[in-house]
Amino acid sequence: MFNFGKTEEEIGRLNAMEENFAIISFEPNGKIIHANDNFLNALGYKLNEVVGNHHRIFCDKTYTNSKAYTKFWNDLANGISQIDEFERFKKDGTSIWIQASYTPVKNKSGKVTRVIKFAQDITDSKKVIDAVKNSIDLAKTGIMKQTITESTKNEGIENLKNGINELYQIVSSKVDGDLNKISTSLTSFQNLNFTHRISGDLGEVSIGLNNLADIINEMLVENKSNGLTLDESSNILLSNVDKLNISSNEAAASLEETAAALEEITSNIRNTTSNIAKMSSLSNNVTTSASQGEKLASKTTVAMDEINTQVSLITEAISIIDQIAFQTNILSLNAAVEAATAGEAGRGFAVVAQEVRNLASRSAEAAKEIKNIVETAKSKADEGKEIASHMIDGYKELNQNIQQTITLISDIEMSSKEQLTGIEQINDAVTQLDQQTQQNAQIASQAHDVAQITDNIAKLVVNDANTKEFIGKNEVKAKNINLNKSNSHNSNSIYQSSKKTPIKVERSKTITPKNNNDEWESF
After folding, report:
1. Cβ–Cβ under 8 Å, residues 258 and 430
2. CATH of the domain at 25
3. Which of 32, 142, 304, 348 could be 179's S-S partner, Cβ–Cβ 3.0 to 4.6 Å?
4. Order of strands, edge to edge, in the sheet holding 95-106?
5. What pLDDT is attached to residue 73?
6. What tens digit of pLDDT does each residue of 180-215 get?
7. From CA 80, how far away is CA 112, in angstroms rounded?
8. Could you tell me if residue 52 is inside a domain?
9. In the prediction, which pLDDT does 497 show?
10. Same domain? 244 vs 366
């Protein structure tokens, strides 16, 4: 076909091309000039059936009537080569794909005199490539369980096909034969529906997703169960914390009242201790006064004895005066007798004697009266002496009682001081307890806030679990954590029983004793 004017080497190259390519030559307008056996065998024609015909006999009529086909030949006529893959049709109408180059051949003046086409049958390769494209399109829809059955002698394309088939097999075994199942499952999971499970011939990823769904389902069941449990527990906790809060506030109030009462008691005991000290001082003063009274009573007894002595002396003196009056009266009587005997001369003396006798009589009467008075005074002095003796005995007994009272007051003073020390310690302890109770009340209030937050979190956990769909969702119950709800009631009763009536302190009253015995009994 190309042996004109060629060297042996060129003829060899051309023969090699003749053996390996389907070759056909055209006029610039597309009229067929010649075709080799490879071309004729590939398209099922004989040489006389193609020579003189136009190239369009190998093409689809729609294509040959298009502007693209007209341009195709115009470009070739203008010397522009066309290299591409082309679909052509055999004599029997079946399709054949060729990889061809339409090369314009020019004369010395540069005019295109013919067009030579070198082509190779790539129908098998094209089928494989189309099958690969179709399989890829199918894979894009998610179907990975497929096998490309077309084959070609083109080793590269065949290797590519085999590699893709192997990829499909690996993906099917590792993931799933239908990726739409994976997508559906993931969409379901994305919509928080974990009830969906992939079925059929499962790959590793599908199995993993099912297992993941099972794990998530178990987690959601556990979360909801924990949420319900936490909700119930938080309700109990909130109730108990409320009770604790109320009890703490009541205890704080009671302790505050107790502290105030103890402070008042402490003040009263302190005042009592001070009064006892004053009583001790007054008792000492009373002892001193009693001792002085006893001494004065003794002096009174001595004075009474001295008065008796003097009264005795006065009595003796009065007796002497009485005797003198008696003697005077006798003398005056004798003088009167003598005066009467003397007559007129003794009349004046008789008058004097009478006056002397009158004086003696009155002296005797006065002495008698004085004697009576002195005897009365002596009787009163003896009575005073007896009273003074009784006073001495009374003062002695009073001193003994006062000494016992001082001892008792001293003991009471020591006890009162110890009681004051103890009550001050109790007061300090109650004050500290009151502070701690106030802190407990604050902590209880904070615990109430924490319990409220916990309750809110529990409800959020339950609500969050309820927004998701999972197997056994409606059958999930709270866990039985053996919470003894009665304990809260018992604790409540304990709190109630621990409440005490606030202490009412009555201020001490001063007791005014009617007598000494009443004073000691009142004390």
Report:
1. yes
2. 3.30.450.20
3. 142
4. 32-35, 22-26, 112-121, 95-106, 82-89
5. 96
6. 777 787 888 788 888 878 777 777 777 887 888 888
7. 10
8. yes
9. 43
10. yes
The yes-or-no verdict on residue 283 having pLDDT over 80 is no
Q: Alpha-carbon distance 295 to 391, whole Å?
A: 10
Are 243 and 381 in the same domain?
A: yes
Tokens of 493: 């009763």
Question: Where is pLDDT greater, at 60 or 198?
Answer: 60
The dihedral over CA atoms of 400, 405, 406, 407, expressed in degrees to the nearest 10, equals 90
Q: Could you tell me if residue 93 is left (phi over 0), alpha (psi between -120 and 50 degrees) or otherwise beta?
A: left
**Do 247 and 394 lie in a common domain?**
yes
Handedness of CA 453, 457, 460, 466 (dihedral sign): negative
Q: Is the pTM of this model over 0.85?
A: no
Token pair recorded at residue 203 = 């790959």
The CATH number of whichever domain residue 427 belongs to comes to: 1.10.287.950
Note whether 389 and 254 are same-domain residues: yes
| Complete DSSP assignment for 229-276 | HHHHHHHHHHHHHHHHHHHHHHHHHHHHHHHHHHHHHHHHHHHHHHHH
If DSSP states are collapsed to H, E and C, what string results for 471-517? CCHHHCCCCCCCCCHHHHHHHHHHHHHHCCCCCCCCCCCCCCCCCHH
Q: Are residues 263 and 387 in the same domain?
A: yes
401 belongs to a structural domain = yes
**Domain match, 89 and 228 both:** no
465 in a structural domain: no
Residue 26 CA to residue 21 CA, distance in Å, equals 16
**Amino acid 506: pLDDT:** 45
| Residue in this structure with the two tokens 């005074």, named with its chain if needed | 377
**Which range marks the domain in which residue 336 is found?**
218-441+482-522
Residue 278: exposure state from Cβ atoms within 10 A (0-12, 13-18, ≥19): exposed
Taking residue 222's Cβ as centre, other Cβ atoms within 10 Å add up to 13
What type of residue sits at position 395? Answer: Y
Number of domains within the chain: 2
Distance CA 273, CA 447 (A): 46
Do residues 213 and 197 make contact, with C-beta atoms less than 8 angstroms apart?
yes
Question: What is the DSSP code (8-state) at residue 58?
Answer: G
Orientation angle between helical segments 204-342 and 179-190, nearest 10 degrees: 20
Task: Taking the CA atoms of 415, 416, 422 and 425 in sequence, report the sign of the dihedral they define.
Answer: negative
Helix (H) or strand (E) holding 166: helix 155-174
**CB count in 10 Å sphere of residue 207:** 12
**Pairing relationship of beta strands 22-26 and 112-121 according to DSSP bridges:** antiparallel
Residue 374 inside a domain? The answer is yes
Q: Among the three residues 121, 155, 175, which one is the final residue of a domain in this structure? A: 121
Q: Are 269 and 517 in contact (CB under 8 A)?
A: no
Cβ neighbors of 32 (< 8 A, separation 6 or more) are 24, 25, 26, 50, 51, 52, 53, 54, 55
**Domain limit, last residue, from 66, 98, 121:** 121
Query: Backbone phi, then psi, for 177, in 5-degree steps?
Result: -70, -25
The residues near 82 (Cβ < 8 Å, ≥ 6 apart) are 72, 75, 76, 101, 102
